[in-house]
Specification:
Blueprint (H helix, E strand, L loop, with lengths): L22 H4 L21 H16 L1 E4 L5 H14 L4 E7 L21 E8 L9 H7 L1 H11 L5 E2 L7 E6 L5 E4 L6 E7 L7 E4 L10 H8 L6 E4 L6 E4 L5 E4 L9 E6 L1 E2 L8 H8 L4 H8 L10
Antiparallel strand pairs: 1-10, 2-3, 3-5, 4-13, 5-12, 6-11, 7-10, 7-12, 8-9, 8-11
């Protein structure tokens, strides 16, 4: 993120604000009965809500990933994609070579062929959080209390808060033809994404779960993957409307290159935290959005790290 403070640029092409957005038209309520959390089952079988939760918990426990298939309705996907398309002029595209920790400089403490000194092209874009209308489908899905409650139950935590970062809390990742997002780790413990528009070719999400831990960087496994190894790699066949819950702090992951002849890949990214009021790191914010706000600099001065990982 960044060291210079900038104000938000004027909106260029954001979708027209809506009077309201009906959450019931965005989510497949038959598959995902969000109002069924506290509703007793008609018999001894587990309720539909808790069946969804248990299925997601199984995936997260096994390899740090769960997919809620067709969570967003076709109507909701059209709304999301219309909003992303309207906000796309605000996208910050960048092309740089990074290592899995988003560093761009050689670290002399490690050998030249070490994972820390292995750099790959990142060529993608992010629509910042201040590009969205105050009322829109993106924001409605992100902030819905019932959605947050479902995600918290899936993650087996008591509560979940919307990431308070004004740029990185609610974003969309854009991969235009020829672009890719290489192997990397997240700074957050988990991420929630919805595939909105898939690439015609390429643009596949791949991950290797738990290749490092809070006290072990796992350099050997990471180096093998950066060298082209496929040990433990999962490739997801995501479809429009699929919501993915992913523990990306310890699992290496990437989105493969979108074919030059393909349509762009659009994914909505909903960021949440366990504590309220969390703001992103200055260096990572600058890399993704080319600017920071006063909130980022203030948070950086008082930040306390949860671990000593490279990032």
């Amino acid at each position: 993120m960044s060291t210079a403070t900038e104000t938000s640029p004027p909106s260029q092409g954001s979708a027209e604000p809506a009077a309201s957005v009906d959450l019931r038209r965005l989510i497949d309520a038959e598959r995902y009965p969000l109002d069924g959390r506290d509703r007793p089952a008609p018999d001894t079988r587990r309720s539909a809500y808790w069946n969804v939760v248990e299925h997601a918990r199984g995936g997260l426990r096994a390899d740090g990933c769960a997919v809620l298939k067709r969570f967003v309705t076709p109507h909701g996907i059209r709304q999301l994609n219309d909003e992303i398309t309207a906000a796309k002029p605000r996208t910050h595209f960048s092309s740089q070579v990074i290592n899995p920790y988003f560093h761009t400089e050689v670290n002399p403490a490690f050998n030249d062929d070490h994972a820390v000194n292995t750099f790959t092209e990142r060529s993608s874009g992010f629509i910042p959080g201040d590009a969205w209308p105050a009322v829109c489908a993106m924001d409605t899905l992100f902030r819905a209390a019932a959605v947050c409650r479902l995600l918290a139950d899936c993650l087996e935590i008591d509560e979940l808060h919307c990431y308070d970062d004004p740029l990185a809390g609610l974003t969309a990742n854009i991969l235009d033809p020829g672009q890719q997002f290489p192997w990397h780790f997240d700074t957050n413990d988990f991420a929630v994404t919805v595939l909105v528009q898939p690439a015609d070719e390429g643009g596949l999400f791949e991950y290797a779960s738990a290749v490092r831990s809070a006290d072990d960087e796992g350099f050997e496994a990471i180096g093998g993957l950066l060298a082209g190894g496929r040990d433990g790699v999962h490739t997801l066949d995501l479809q429009p409307g699929d919501m993915q819950i992913f523990r990306g702090r310890f699992s290496l992951h990437r989105v493969t290159r979108v074919a030059a002849s393909s349509q762009p890949r659009h994914a909505a990214i909903f960021a949440y935290t366990r504590q309220p009021g969390v703001i992103g790191r200055v260096e990572r914010t600058r890399q993704l959005f080319s600017r920071v706000l006063a909130e980022h600099e203030e948070a950086e001065r008082s930040r306390v790290r949860d671990d000593e990982l490279l990032d």
